[in-house]
Structures are given as C-alpha cells and as structure tokens.
Amino acid sequence: MIARLLILSDVHYAGPLEQQRTRYEARSVDNPLARILLSAYRRYVWLRDPLSHNHLLPALCNQAGEVDKVVANGDFSCDTAFIGVSDAAARQSAEISLGYLRQRYQEKFHAVMGDHELGKKSLGGGKGGLRIESLRTATEILGIAQAWSFSIGLWRLVGVTSSVLALPILQPETLGCEWAEWQDAREKHLTEIRVIFDSIKPNERVLLFCHDPTALPFLIEEPSVAAKLHQLERTIIGHLHTPAVFGLAKRLAGMPRIDFLGTTPKRLSSALRKAKDWEPFRVVLCPSPPGIQLLKDGGFLTVSVDSESPAPLDFERHRLSWRKTEHGTDAKQAG
C-alpha cells in the first residue's frame, strides 16, 4: 500500500483577537534604535505583516489534494503576547487553525507541538517566555500530545516536543518559580520517548517529527534514541521557515555562544553551537506556508510511503503562492 503524506509547519494563524495586535513585536522593544532595526528586518527580510497570511492554510490544503496522513509540525498561532497559548488570543488562533485541520482530515491528522505553543521571548525586546500554563493548555485543551507514534506498515512515525527537550538551553526564558515543574515535565517527556523508541522493531524505518532542531543534540544523548538512529530515514523539522535560514544554520554549525547581546542571540548561538549534532538525524526542513518576505519561498512537503518497502523516501517540496484565490479563503470561514 502506498500512503501519501502531507507535512506542513509554522502555520502562524492569526485569529480575530491576535489580528487586533498590529505591530505587536515592535511594541515589545523599548530601545528606539532597536525598534527601527527590527521594523526594517520585518519589512524587508522576514515578514512585513505576519498577521496577514491566514488564507494560505486552506490554499495549502487545496493545493495538496488527496492525502492519506497529515502531520502539522508546530506553531499554530502568531503568539503575539510571547507567552504561548496560555494567552487567550493565541489560544483562539490555535483553536481555529487546529480545528480547521482536524475537521478537514479527521483521524488522518497529527499535530506536533511547536515553540510558540509554549511561549518564546520576543526578538529584541526580551518580553514573554515559556509558561507552564501554556504546556497544560496545549495538551489538555488543544489536544496536542507531547509525544506520539503510529505505524504505516514498516514505517514508524514519531512526534516529539522540541522546547521541552531543549529546556537546558531555554531555562533563561522560563520563570524561576516554574523551573521545577518544567524539569518534571521534561523527565516525563523523556520517559515517553524512551518507551516509543524501545518499542521500534528492528525491521521498521523511522520518520521523526521535531519542530525545532535545537532539541536534536539532547535527543542523541538518550541511549534509546541513539540505538535506533541507524533506522532513522529522516527527521522533519520546521521552525526555520525557509531553506535559506536552514542552509545558513548548517554553515554556522559550531559557532561560539554569544552571551552579551541578550536572550535571543544567546539562545540562537547556543543552538548553532551544537548544530553539527543534527547530522545523524538526516534533517529535512518543512518551510512555513509564506516563507519569508525577501524570498516568498514558502510551501509544504509531501512524500509517498510504501508500507511494505523500507526503500529511501523522496520528499517533494511544493511552493505556495501568496496570491489570494477563491479557494484560499479564511480558515474560520472554510471550517
């Protein structure tokens, strides 16, 4: 049996409440010069208006056509308060985008938790961060499992939560009063992962879904995971939004950590310092639907899996136009 798999990532849907927070990122920056630089970066490089791409979610699904399984690899809201889905507006956005995907694909759909589900300090402003309430909301209200696995014949698909795995790097973005809870959550998550990888049969091939590759050096430290790396076909990541950033990250692998420019550069440089440890995971990037402003290089992935064959897989990247069409309607309307 041939199963066609659709992979999407970094939807960053903006529901009605988040739509009201225009220029949310610039307002988080107190320094006027830093605010100007951030606005220029947003305008010309990253995304001029990150709240304006809702139409790409149904457009993506329509362009993908008929599929047998769907994996959405994290980041379902714009996280405009920088504290994840414990914020009511971000939770509403995630509910709309997840609701659309679940209604459309039913039991075919599987969701991976991204960093913006849990919270992330603002670029240049240092506002927000991880919140333990966002972890509870993501799992208990939004129904995103921290770890999951299912089989397609000889293929085992596994999803993990990157921010929980990468907590040693992300500790500065947590609240001190919540650190013990985060440590407990990480140990429970590692236990889930050990159980999954220990259950993988010798004849199975593995597809791993992990939103942020920052987590991969921590995964390889787990004996249960390391013992099955020879069975790993590919690891599908999101988070980086564009192949251009993915390529740059690989070139910067091993760079020293930057401790003097604030939380975000420290976090990014810490991740890149260990980027050479990504190699055993055979990483494939799933771009965000819009990509970035400079290149407009967004899209999604598809791959056909033969349930009876362990032959290498051929991932196909599909470009997605920013142009609105009659089929690229708002997910809330379409759902």
Arrangement of strands in the largest sheet = 3-2-1-9-10
Domain module count: 1
Order of helices and strands: EHHHHEHEHHEEHHHEHHEHHEEEH
CATH class, please? Alpha Beta
How would you describe what is shown here?
The chain has one domain (2-324): Purple Acid Phosphatase, chain A, domain 2 (4-Layer Sandwich). The model has no long low-confidence stretch (mean pLDDT 91). Helices cover 36% and strands 16% of the residues. Strand 4 (148-152) and strand 5 (155-160) form a beta hairpin. With 335 residues, the protein is of the alpha/beta class.
Please describe the structure with a list of short key phrases separated by commas or semicolons.
Purple Acid Phosphatase, chain A, domain 2; five-stranded mixed β-sheet; 15 helices; about 35% helix; globular
Task: Summarize the entry for a quick read.
With 335 residues, this protein is α/β, with parallel strands linked by helices. The chain contains 15 helices and 10 strands.
Itemize the secondary structure elements and their pairings.
Layout: E1 2-8, H1 16-19, H2 24-27, H3 32-44, H4 56-64, E2 69-72, H5 88-105, E3 109-111, H6 115-118, H7 132-141, E4 148-152, E5 155-160, H8 162-165, H9 167-170, H10 179-198, E6 205-210, H11 216-219, H12 223-226, E7 232-237, H13 243-251, H14 263-273, E8 283-285, E9 299-306, E10 316-319, H15 331-334
Parallel strand pairs: 1-2, 2-3, 5-6, 6-7, 7-8
Antiparallel strand pairs: 1-9, 4-5, 9-10
